[in-house]
Amino acid sequence: MATQINVESIPTKDGFSCQVEIQEARGTSSHLVRVTEEELVRYGHGRGVEELVRASFRFLLEREPPSSILHAFDLSTISRYFPEFQELV
Q: What is the pTM assigned to this prediction?
């Protein structure tokens, strides 16, 4: 089974709250990602929020297993752990 990344976003007063589910052969993990309007502009490069979050999780999954990904975080948190995030997403 190929890894599937499902993203559902809900608008908030500051941006978006995104529920992410990663499905793979070993199981499923769920994550909550907060994306501000500023982060969408900075990292999105014209993409929608769900597409940006899906690309961000592909980036993370290339570097760590789903069990190592925080269960809830702000999108910009990724760049604290992986400085190359902004250039590669």
A: 0.94
